[in-house]
Write a structure and sequence with these properties.
This protein is of the alpha+beta class. It has 25 helices and 20 strands. Strands 12, 13, 14, 15, 16 and 17 form a 6-stranded antiparallel beta sheet that branches.
């Protein structure tokens, strides 16, 4: 054995011990110490070693058994039909390898005729519910696949779970005398957010993720606590069944569960080829965050039940199904340091400097830690191995430390007392979670203000990102936002990377920004609490910046959509002499101070709410929403039961369209939208 090689016997023993430990943390205690991706890496390493050294394979290896042992909180239940695990495919190549195995087992002609059922892999807790004579008699967790826990009383509190089945099937047919339905108990993302909001309001520790919270909620000794958590359920498989109809395909069993009143996920799809399976996987990998529940992959099953029997099972998983896992959104890495950034409002935000790690589709080297309280609650310290989460376009965050890897003598991190940029003493206003640098001339605050002023939602000045603003600031060319309009062109030519074309583009962008609407200017000024909707309301009501500057708190607070907090903040901002000086410099530069003219459009949409999604041929999104508002309507970004209609263009948001269909909200095309604008009525 070379010096660089590891003893396979010792490594196999180490891996089995680690995996068993993590199985217990996940399945028994609902408190995993590592992300799924790290667990999968350990598991697959053990599988490879056992394949390379078959003499080391033993029947009780974690690769040969299902999940973990049943916990001891509740009575044990022996499953009449085992609840098996699934083998995983981590990419399309491994999914294709599974398809190739089907071809070898069934033969090319038979495999070519296979259909597949694609189901979203819900990130929850696997449950088997048993009905006898139409009544719920038992609910059990998966446990080790053979023995689970009796959680009947708790499952009975889930609103989506039928307490009694119909006497006859809808459209005719006998209800099975005995039926076991397998599925996933989960906590909707919206319910998880509401639960954490309540926890924060009560000064209690928030929960880490919906899956663990769902599992912990289901294992409460007090069923009333379970009932308060708003758990939900998706059914996806039958266990034991006695009597009732016969089936030849899996999708027929899903239809039966739906007819009996069990929730069946609406995104299940029956496809005819692996190419269609790939397309389904790619679609939901891109749209996983459109859903109100967490998914971590796609489960692919052979549809034909007779072919399933022919394919059989291994000791832990069926050969006729596989789980295609999405790229991990949680990984572990080393927290190298904790630093503090200063934003445009002076907010001091701690952030983690990480050993770069690929997570959520990109390499992450920095992650937010929010504020001093969150660092304390999470108890992360420089040098820790930490769990990092990045979901879609969400800013990466540190979830928490892997405490098992922390030395006992590692010191806690201490929040700094002074601004790391200008040295001013940081302050934490009473009742707030954030520290702030009070120095309005702090270079970090000034740079943040200028970047915000130039951003797309404000004055939309292309070419003034973070690095360029900091360069100009360091050279003394930018002291406030108004200095953007007096940049010295001759000095720009002296800078490396600034030729005639780039300078001309900068000047053109600055000139174009002068004509932006008054609401954009108000947003760009960075007045605390004043957002885009409040800025539009002020611009429309007062019509000119000078009138806003001279208005009282009462005047501004009386504007619809602007409350007393915003009003006080606006008046206080314009009362500062330094801010008034900036306004005068902007006036001298020719920046537009005039608000929109009052619309003469008939107010046919007064009291109505119209949501726009997708790309319309004749309207930009902004123009469509403006047309709705000009006619007295509202155009929010989400669909609710109060929505009058949803206007759908090309490539609409899946979540908005699905919500509209669920709530029965009318869906309009572009022609229907034009009719609505003209008449205020839905097309017949």
């Amino acid at each position: 054995m070379g010096d660089g090689e590891r003893d396979p016997v010792a490594r196999v023993d180490e891996l089995r011990s680690l995996i068993r430990h993590h199985n217990e943390r996940y399945y028994v205690h609902d408190a995993p110490e590592i992300p799924d991706a790290e667990y999968d890496r350990l598991f697959r390493e053990l599988q490879r070693l056992e394949e390379l050294h078959p003499d080391l394979l033993v029947p009780d290896s974690p690769t040969q058994v299902v999940g973990g042992a049943a916990a001891t909180t509740f009575a044990e239940v022996e499953h009449r039909v085992p609840m098996m695990s699934l083998d995983n495919a981590m990419d399309e190549a491994e999914l294709q390898a599974w398809g190739d195995r089907l071809v070898r087992q069934l033969g090319p002609e038979t495999a070519a005729e296979l259909g597949y059922v694609c189901e979203l892999k819900i990130d929850g807790l696997a449950i088997s519910v048993r009905y006898e004579g139409g009544r719920l008699v038992q609910a059990a967790t998966r446990g080790n696949g053979r023995v689970g826990e009796d959680v009947t009383a708790n499952v009975a509190t889930i609103a989506a779970m039928p307490s009694r089945l119909p006497d006859r099937l809808p459209r005719g047919g006998a209800v099975p005398e005995v039926i076991e339905v397998r599925g996933e108990v989960y906590l909707p993302v919206s319910a998880f957010a509401a639960l954490n909001t309540a926890q924060e309001a009560a000064g209690q520790r928030t929960y880490v993720n919906p899956r663990n919270t769902a599992a912990g909620s289901l294992r409460q000794k007090d069923a009333s606590i379970t009932a308060s958590r708003n758990l939900a359920f998706w059914s996806y498989q039958l266990g034991e069944i006695v009597g009732g109809p016969t089936f030849t395909t899996h999708h027929e069993t899903l239809e039966l569960m739906d007819r009996l009143g069990f929730p069946v996920n609406p995104n299940v799809s029956v496809v005819r080829s692996l190419d269609e399976v790939y397309a389904y996987c790619r679609h939901w990998q891109a749209h996983r965050h459109d859903l109100d529940y967490e998914i971590d992959g796609v489960v692919v099953k052979v549809d034909d039940l007779a072919r399933r029997e022919e394919l059989g099972v291994t000791s832990r998983a069926p050969r006729w199904a596989i789980a295609y896992k999405f790229p991990p959104e949680e990984r572990t890495t080393v927290l190298k340091a904790i630093m503090v950034s200063i934003g445009r409002t002076g907010r001091a935000t701690p952030f983690a400097v990480l050993e770069p790690v690929f997570v959520g589709g990109s390499t992450v080297g920095l992650a937010t830690l929010h504020n001093q309280d969150q660092v304390k609650v999470k108890d992360v310290r420089p040098g820790d191995t930490v769990i990092v989460r990045k979901a879609g376009d969400v800013i990466p965050e540190v979830v928490g430390p892997v405490l098992a890897d922390r030395p006992a003598d590692r010191p806690e991190w201490v929040f700094p007392s002074h601004c790391p940029v200008c040295g001013s003493a940081l302050v934490r206003p009473e009742g707030e979670a954030d520290h702030r640098c009070p120095n309005e001339l702090c270079p970090a605050r000034v740079a943040g203000n200028i970047e915000h002023f130039a951003s797309r939602g404000a004055m939309d000045i292309e070419g003034f990102g973070e690095q360029r603003v900091q360069l100009f600031q360091s050279l003394g060319m930018l002291r406030d936002v108004a200095d953007l309009y007096t940049l010295d062109v001759d000095r720009l030519r002296e800078l490396e990377g600034f030729g005639d074309t780039s300078i001309a583009n900068l000047m053109a962008a600055l000139e174009a920004s002068k004509a932006r609407p008054l609401a954009n200017l108000l947003v760009g000024l960075g007045i605390r609490h004043l957002g885009p909707s409040g800025a539009q309301a002020l611009a429309a009501h007062f019509g000119h910046l000078d009138r806003i500057m001279e208005a009282t708190v009462e005047d501004i607070g009386a504007v619809e959509g602007v409350g007393p907090v915003i009003a006080a903040s606006v008046v206080a901002w314009f009362a500062e002499p330094a801010n008034r000086a900036v306004i005068e410099k902007l006036r001298a530069a020719g920046v537009n101070f005039t608000g929109p003219e009052r619309s003469e459009a008939p107010q046919v949409l007064a009291g109505k709410t119209v949501v726009v999604t997708g790309t319309l041929a004749g309207w930009s999104r902004e123009a469509a929403e403006a047309a709705i508002k000009e006619r007295g309507g509202k155009s929010p970004g989400s669909v609710s039961k109060k929505t009058t209609a949803v206007v759908v263009g090309e490539s609409p948001g899946a979540s908005k369209l699905t919500k509209a269909e669920e709530l029965g909200v009318p869906v309009l095309d572009e022609a229907g939208f034009a009719h609505l604008l003209a008449t205020g009525e839905l097309p017949s």
